[in-house]
Structure formats: C-alpha cells, structure tokens
C-alpha cells in the first residue's frame, strides 16, 4: 500500500539508578513514606533509599502512587541533608524510569518539576567545592553536589522524554543555563556530563522555543565538549550525544558555518561507528580479569599481614576499639551502591554511542518527516549529484547519501564513509564476544545491546534506500551485492530468525531494496523459496510491521516473477499465501496490504493469468469482497488511524476494480 515510511527515533529514557534487586524484605509503603517525616536525617535517608530500591519493581509502584509518593518525596529534594536529597532524587528517578509514560505524566501533574527545578538551580550555584559549606560536606569522600545533580538530571531527562509540559517548564524556567554549568565539569565528571548530554538531546528535539537560549556562550560549551580529545568509550558517548544535540539546534548555526558543523557531527559519528564493539568486549573482559586477579592477590597479602599482626597481640589485651568512622549505622545503605565495573561500563558506553549515532543518522535522513507524496518525489528525483564508488563486496561499502539532505550534508556523509560503516554494523555480532557475554552474568545484558546496534544499522540502511536515487547506488551490481548480504543475514543460520526487532529491521531493509531493484528491472538474488520461507516466519510475528513488510516483499517479488517465463506455479504459491493472509489476518491493515500485494502480482502477464485461473482467484475474491467491506465498517475506526483508513478505502476500491479486471480476462481468454 505505497512505499514504506522511514522511521524516526526518539531517545529511550534512562535506566533506573542502582543495581537491580530481587525482592527485598519489604516494609509497607505507608510505613516507609511516614519515615520521610522523621526528625533524623539518617532515617529519612534510609526511607528514601528503601523506596528507591522497591520502585525498581513495577508491581509495587501502584501501592506507592496510591499514597501520593510524588508529593511525599518532592520536598525531600530540598531537604537540609545532602544525603537525603541524593536518595530522594534517586527514588524519583527510579519511579520515572520504571513507571513509564503514564507515571511520568502523573509526576508532572503532581508538580515534581517545582522542587526539581529549584534543586537543579541550587546545585548549579553551589557546584564548585569551595561554595559548599563545611557542615554540608561532612563526608567529602564523595562530591555530594555533583552526585545529587546527576540523579536530578536523570530524573529531569526521564520526565522531559515522556512529557511535553516538563519540556515547556524546562524552557520557561531557564534551566538550560544550569545544566550547561554541569556540562562544564565534563573533564572531571564524565558521568554527570553524559547525563546532561542525554537530557539536552531530549529537550532540544522539536523544541523551537529553546533555540533562542543557545547563544554563543552556550554553543561554545557544546563545541568544547565536542573537541575533547579523550579516547575512553564514555567520552565517545559524550561526544556523540553532544553532536546529536547540535544537530537538533542546527537552525541556530549561521549558514556559513553549516557545512563545517555537519562535517564535525558526522566525523564524530564515523569515529564512533568505526570502533569494533566485539573486539572491545574481548579486550575489556581480559582487562577485567587482570584487575580482579590483582585485587585478589592484594587482598590475600593484606589478610596475611593482618594474621601476623593479630598473632603479635597478647591474649589478655583488651578488645580493640572499633575505628572511628567504621561503625555500621542501623540503616546502612552501602549495599545499595553499585560495584565499580569500569570495563563493563566502557563497553556499555560504546554500544550506547553507536546506537545513538545510528538513530540520529536515521533522523537526519528524514528530518522533516515528509508525507508519502514527498517520499515519492524524493525517491524519483534525478537531480542528485550523489554517486557510488564501489560495491559492498569490493570492500569499500555502499556509498549512499540521502537526497533529502543539503549539499553540505551530502558531502560530509560521503567524506566520513558513514554508509560503509553502517553496513559493517548490520553484520551479526562477534561470536567470541557473544560467548564471553553468555558466560558472564553481569555482561549478559550486552547481548541485547549488540543486537540493538545491528537493528539500528539495518533501519539506517532502510532509510537510505528509501530516499536515494537508484543510479546513485552504484547500479545493478552494487544492489545485488547488498541483496546477497541481506539474504545471508536471514539464511546464514540453520533456523530463521524469530527476534521481533531484527525481523522488523531486516524486512524493512529488504522491502526497500527489492522495491528499488524492481523499479529498474534488476534481477533479484533471493529465490522464491527463500522469500516464501522468510514470509512464513514473518507472518507469524506479533509485530504488525513485520507482517506488513513480508506481504509487501512477496508482492514486489511476485510482480517481478510475473514478467518471466514458466513462473505460474511459483505465482500460484505466492497468491495462495497472500490470499490466506488477506482472509485470516487479524489486523485490518495487514489484510489490506496482502490484498494490495495480490493486485501487484496478478496485475499483468500470461503467467499471472494462468496462475490466477488455476488457484481460482476470481471467485475467491468475489466471495471475500463483502467480508472485507464489513470488516472495514466494523473494525476500521477502532483499529486504524485516519491515514490508514484512507489507504484501506483505496484498497477497497482497487479490489472492486481488480475483480472487474479479472472478469474481463475471463470473458476474453487469450
């Protein structure tokens, strides 16, 4: 039913703070909330920390919401105790991260932004250590101000990602100046800077009201971070996020500087994508093993030393006094703090950087989210001066560039070899790295992140194919090489993939590629048997987009086969598959796509006519026509958007026309 649309990505909200917990010994929500009013700061801190731990479990969130947890914790953000402020901010962060959009909306409605904005501004004012009173910094083995700010910024990021009112408050209250002040700490606190950068990406997306606040001074802060020479993976992530923010505020950049700005952004993305994540996992895992080995050896030596010292103590000596500062408080929360796994954090930062870069590139390809008509116009453009230098198999990668971007972006896109690196990321993750992750519980979550990067790369490829002129893609050989690459991703393993995200990404890319190849009569590398196998797997997916893609792929391939000799049997298999989908599919949109694909396959050609007669297509469609009309009346408004209903109306009209066309063929057999 027309071309597939390019997908825009929004930033995913941050994860909850603190390590994941099993079921703790739960105290009732009411009792913990009551302890927030206790005169002892330690008790309030313990209550906040306990609530924070519990809120990581979604099933307990309703109990806290019923007791107005937001209004109870909100004032704690401005508590006299810095430790209480930090744990309260962490609890609200976890509530926003684990509760989802509805909870974030409720938090904004319950006015969480008032104390949060006040806290952010107060922390910004007292960010430098010499501005913090000694009384408040009684335990300066940590920087409370920066740690509080980090929790608060993550909370702000969550609610702004989910709620437009929060973004408006951020803009109107002048929060940008405060968060940029935190960003200046990037050289000494990269974690805080990353939190700020994530938040900035959220609040700058589609927010023209904020653009005027990005004066020369604000832009200078961002530019300084972009030029940071540090090579850690956290700094790679930081630069990638800042590059995304600068893309969001590109309208504030003078026209004369646009080219250099875009080139700088894409250079950062290119550097991020050039890093081999699999090799990084292998290297970092080895580094972790060495660190733990050295730590174990040092601990053994220390224990031996303690034994020797203890043996020298007389048996009748008094018991040694517990050292000052080592007394364990009744409500000690040290077990809530995550252990230092810097190697794992480095790999996680790299994968997040690569995912972010790929998502922003997708958005750059469709920055204005054009309509279907505009997509058609962009796809048929013959005015582009883009080019292809080498095919994928020749090692240089497809050098493609989106037509909807300016000349500056075209040039930077190619100069930084972005498409080549996108293609590299579409490959399956390194098997050795996967094995490391599989056998290390703390590293196992990286598998999902590796797969996400692959899916984002495939979505990037899909976007590029949608808006690129065929002649600029390197001709038939380059497209066939790409088709071979994608088919290998699908069929290289003994079983067809079942992962929903991967299926959506790979079928979207294949759909766009096959449509491009069909439009230029380029022979397709995938056999009908392979296509049917893929579609059999995809049609059972719970994701409607996957099902739409596979029936569209069959329609495209079938229409090509209809022009060839001796394909009637294959066309009959395709036709039966599509007809069954149209009749039995639960989604009206997918059923409509299947009908549309049928029209394409049997629109013309001797082989198509022969297959249609053999499978009795005409009587089947005549019998199904009133059923489809009835479904549209009953289910259309409930299931479909206005745009989808318009498309389905066209399908209904085309069904009537197609039946009339088939009847004409029956009256005038050739």
UniProtKB/TrEMBL annotation:
- Could you state a single Gene Ontology molecular function term? unfolded protein binding
Q: Where is this chain compositionally biased, Basic residues type? A: 1-11
Concerning Gene3D superfamilies, the annotation shows: Leucine-rich Repeat Variant
Outline the extent of the SYO1-like TPR repeats domain: 408-664
What SUPFAM superfamilies does the annotation carry?
A: ARM repeat
Q: Return one Gene Ontology term, BP aspect.
A: ribosomal large subunit biogenesis
**Chain residue ranges for the region called Disordered:** 1-28
- What is the similarity comment for this entry? Belongs to the nuclear import and ribosome assembly adapter family.
Know the name of this protein?
HEAT repeat-containing protein 3
Q: Which organism is it from?
A: Aythya fuligula
Q: What is the lineage of its organism?
A: Eukaryota, Metazoa, Chordata, Craniata, Vertebrata
């Amino acid at each position: 039913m027309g071309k597939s649309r390019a997908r825009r990505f929004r930033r995913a909200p941050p994860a909850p703070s603190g390590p994941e917990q099993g079921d703790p010994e739960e105290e009732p929500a009411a009792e913990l909330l009551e302890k927030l009013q206790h005169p002892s700061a330690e008790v309030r801190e313990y209550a906040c920390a306990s609530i924070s731990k519990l809120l990581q479990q979604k099933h307990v969130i309703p109990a806290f919401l019923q007791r107005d947890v937001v209004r109870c914790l909100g004032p704690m953000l401005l508590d006299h105790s810095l430790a209480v402020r930090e744990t309260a901010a962490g609890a609200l962060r976890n509530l926003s991260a684990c509760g989802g959009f509805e909870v974030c909306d409720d938090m904004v409605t319950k006015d969480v932004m008032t104390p949060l904005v006040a806290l952010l501004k107060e922390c910004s004012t007292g960010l430098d250590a010499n501005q913090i009173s000694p009384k408040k910094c009684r335990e300066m083995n940590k920087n409370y101000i920066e740690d509080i700010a980090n929790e608060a910024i993550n909370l702000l990021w969550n609610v702004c990602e989910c709620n437009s009112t929060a973004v408006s408050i951020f803009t109107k209250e002048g929060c940008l100046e405060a968060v940029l002040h935190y960003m200046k700490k990037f050289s000494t606190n990269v974690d805080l800077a990353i939190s700020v950068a994530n938040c900035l990406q959220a609040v700058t997306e589609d927010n023209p009201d904020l653009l005027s606040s990005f004066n020369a001074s604000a832009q200078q802060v961002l530019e300084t971070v972009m030029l940071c020479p540090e090579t850690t993976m956290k700094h790679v992530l930081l630069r990638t996020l800042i590059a995304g923010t600068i893309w969001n505020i590109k309208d504030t950049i003078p026209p004369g500087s646009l080219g250099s700005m875009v080139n700088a952004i894409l250079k950062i993305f290119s550097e991020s994508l050039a890093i081999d994540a699999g090799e990084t996992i292998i290297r970092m895992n080895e580094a972790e093993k060495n660190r733990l080995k050295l730590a174990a050896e040092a601990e053994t030596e220390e224990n031996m030393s303690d034994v020797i010292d203890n043996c020298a103590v007389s048996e009748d000596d008094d018991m040694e006094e517990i050292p000052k500062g080592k007394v364990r408080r009744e409500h000690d929360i040290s077990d809530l703090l995550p252990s230092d796994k810097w190697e794992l954090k480095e790999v996680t930062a790299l994968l997040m950087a690569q995912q972010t870069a790929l998502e922003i590139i997708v958005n750059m390809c469709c920055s204005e989210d054009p309509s279907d008509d505009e997509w058609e116009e962009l796809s048929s453009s013959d005015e582009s001066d883009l080019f292809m230098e080498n095919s994928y198999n020749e090692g240089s990668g497809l050098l493609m560039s989106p037509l909807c971007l300016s000349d500056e972006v075209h040039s930077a896109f190619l100069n930084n070899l972005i498409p080549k690196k996108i293609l590299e990321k579409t490959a399956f993750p390194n098997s050795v790295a996967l094995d490391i992750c599989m056998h290390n519980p703390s590293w196992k979550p990286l598998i999902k992140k590796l797969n996400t990067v692959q899916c984002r790369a495939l979505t990037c490829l899909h976007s590029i194919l949608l808006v690129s002129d065929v002649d600029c893609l390197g001709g038939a050989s380059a497209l066939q090489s790409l088709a071979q690459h994608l088919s290998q991703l699908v069929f290289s393993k003994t079983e067809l993939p079942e992962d929903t995200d991967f299926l959506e990404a790979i079928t979207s890319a294949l759909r766009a590629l096959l449509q491009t190849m069909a439009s230029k009569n380029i022979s397709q590398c995938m056999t009908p048997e392979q296509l049917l196998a893929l579609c059999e797997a995809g049609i059972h997916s719970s994701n409607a987009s996957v099902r739409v893609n596979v029936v569209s792929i069959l329609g495209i391939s079938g229409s090509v086969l209809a022009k060839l000799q001796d394909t009637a049997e294959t066309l009959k298999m395709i036709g039966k598959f599509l007809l069954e989908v149209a009749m039995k599919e639960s989604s009206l949109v997918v059923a409509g796509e299947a009908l549309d694909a049928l029209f394409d396959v049997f629109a013309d050609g001797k082989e198509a006519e022969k297959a249609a007669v053999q499978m009795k297509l005409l009587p089947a469609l005549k019998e199904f026509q009133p059923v489809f009309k009835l479904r549209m009346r009953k289910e259309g408004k409930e299931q479909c958007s206005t745009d989808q209903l318009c498309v389905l109306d066209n399908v209904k009209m085309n069904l009537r026309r197609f039946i009339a066309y088939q009847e004409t063929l029956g009256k005038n057999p050739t």
